TrEMBL record:
InterPro entries: HATPase_C_sf (IPR036890), HATPase_dom (IPR003594), His_kinase_dom (IPR005467), HisK_dim/P_dom (IPR003661), HisK_dim/P_sf (IPR036097), PAS (IPR000014), Sig_transdc_His_kin-like_C (IPR004358). The chain crosses the membrane at residues 21-40, 52-74, 86-113, 119-139, 160-177. This is histidine kinase. The keyword Cell wall biogenesis/degradation does not apply. Residues 196-238 form the PAS domain. Keywords: Membrane, Phosphoprotein, Transmembrane, Transmembrane helix.
Amino acid sequence: MIARLQALSAESRATFWRSLQTLNATRVVIALVLLVYLSFDNHGLRASGPYLYLQICLIYLGLAIAFALMAVYWQRRFLLQLLSQIACDLAVISLLYVAGGGLRSGLAILYLFPLAGSAILAPLLLSLFCASLVALFMLAESTWQVFMMEGEQPYLQAGLYGAAFFAAVFVVNRMAAKLIGQEELAIRRGVEITVQQAVNRLVMANVGDGILVIDAGGQVFAGNPAAQQMLGMIGPEMKFRLSAAAALAPLAQAYAEWRDDATRSTAYVTIKPYAEAALQDVTAAWSARRDLAAHLKVRFAAVNTEGLGTERSVIFLQDVTGIENQAQQLKLASMGRLTASIAHEVRNPLSAIGHATSLLGEDLDSTVHLRLLKIVGDNVARVNRMVEDILQLSRKVQPHSEPLALAVFLAELKAEFVETHGLPPDIIGTSAPPGTLVRFDALHLREVVLNLLNNAVRYASGGPESIRMDLLSDKARRMELHVQDDGPGISPEVRAHLFEPFYTTSSKGTGLGLYLARELCLNNEARLDYEYRFDIKDSPDGTPRSSGRFVITFAHPAQK
């Protein structure tokens, strides 16, 4: 029994001690009931020996109180305390049983109390031993009655009581053992669940990707520190609704689209928490950082809650800016080793090929030959342009930081671009507050915007204001230049590699234009990114139409 008790967990051992305390409290109640029974039994115990009965009951009450106090304040030697208490119960009940005249006193039922206690708290063998002692005592007392009273044979009743005690002890002991086993299993499972929860919290707290737990209505229930950083949150509170902040509208829209079409489990969104100072329906304890603009790759996954009456999903957030930069650095590391030899090993042969092509074109009149020469010339120009871009990457020209009047700059650039490409004068729409100044090198900004306009012309419809350049200011007083067209947006697959060097979807492109544009922005303490947006006014059915735009975020407004 001692080894069995020690093998149990601390919670199960505490349960044994609580059960023993309950047994002691029941013993005190039984002792008091026996004292009350003395005042009503005029023909039984009270008539045969009231003082003896009173003394036995008082002694039993005192022992019951002592046992109860011992089980509370001296929780040691469990088996010794239990056996001493059971022995005391059997002795007192046996004295009262004999004093009351045996079976006719009706006190035999009291034996169920100590026997049930031993069946619950003691091993089966010990419990059956106590039941056998009671059965033998009752049979012995019945035998004594046979000698004292002729003609009366109470063996049948004593045997029935003994059999009932054996059956009760066996059933109660097996049920108690099963309950103890179930409790021990539940405790082990609880420990395992607690450990798993601790591991989950540790993993969520240290994983690089952001994690949000959300329900079907967009209510966020939990998130890890990485998600807080990506979404620009300050403080430990992570319970809010996605639709409560305008800055999180792209994430809410992507989540709604995934719920409508589960195959769209991945999306790219740009989060600008500084555009919304605080959530609308939560306390001011949640506030957005004003220095963050994060481009995130989000992935949605549904939690299996079948049969639980609730629905949960998990949103995984990954800041792809660092991944993009890392990929670019890996490509540039290998490209840098080639830059030194490109001017001599590639540029000079290209010049020779181009010059020979020009001379050959003067002597040929065949249309087929001229077309072939044009193909050679176009590819020579393309390779030469790539060489120029690579050489420009290695120069890292320092920008001039004089304030630039952006409204005037955009107007002049628009006029030059329309005239150079022979476009309708109203194809490009602009809006810029007059007098707005930014710190950006004019030549660098011209190259960046021209690159974006060349891409826009390729996909725009060509109608009035199918290309727009809008200068806006957010709540953090940051100036943003939006360049967009009415063509289809860039797919998430292309967006993942959009600013990588040498990545292009055009057969005539070099894959360095957008990368150079972003590098020039970084050199001027600005940022170039591609953002998805959702327009309802341009949608015929009233549902948000997804498109995109290039956004140049300037470092800070320049002073006039």
